[in-house]
Amino acid sequence: MSKVLAMFPGQGSQYVGMGRELLNEFPSVKVLFEEAADAARINIRKLCIDGPEDELKLTANTQPCILTVSVAIWKVLRDETGIEPVYYAGHSLGEYSAVVAAGKLTLGRAAFLVRRRGEAMQQAVPPGIGAMAAVMNVPADDLKARCEKINKKTNVVEVVNYNSPQQLVVAGHKKAVDELCVGLETDGLKFVMLPVSAPFHSSLMKPARDVMEPLLKESEFKTTSNEIIANVTGKVEPDYNASHLARQIDGAVLWTQTMENADKLGCDTYIEIGPGRVLFGLGRRIVPKTSKIMHTDEIVKTITELKA
To answer: Catalytic site residue 295?
Structure first.
């Protein structure tokens, strides 16, 4: 019998029109959109379906929208196929979707939390002060050493996302990120500046963690048999609780380690549940080629494949 890892995407997977097919084919999920919208106090359905893009990509809007679409897709997938993942994991924001899917947190509370999370992360660092860049094909130890040389000065740059062995993401003060990238370019190494306005998951996000920590601690996390692989450790956390989501805000996303540990635990099927295909693409670079990797961006097609 297959061991399934349910994977939920994070910020960057959004697009105008996400959830349209889902709502058209499975109108019962409208109640989930309404529940999340009431908690986040924004029109999630309109933002997802109609945008506009400039509003959808605002961090405080993006996060509850991706959460809602992901959870709605999960409900349909479970109801239509009876799928029972062994493990749940989410990339950054996606960990909230994973926690809801695993039955540990209600959708309404999660929608409220990620709306506040988006606001807090945006407010933590003024626009123009922070930056992020994706770095390709540079070993983690090498990249961390380059960051440490720069960090001996005033500004900070850190490795914050271990997306795959071929892709790491750095974040920090813009001056420090720019300095790091100049050095990479000089050495003929590839990088891409990311179109974000804040240095997510870096130590500069500590003010956002300070805002979110009490809100997370006062949230009810239920005990279930479903197991979460946490971002901050890349390991199964039997005693999963609010601290894992708090530490994630200014801590690195260990996605490569998450996928590698899922493989060691015997997972042979990986399903990205949510908009886009980011984790589907990253997964193909990490897990063995014999593993089955799927995405749900075409939900009817995915359901047909799973039933078959």
So the answer is: no
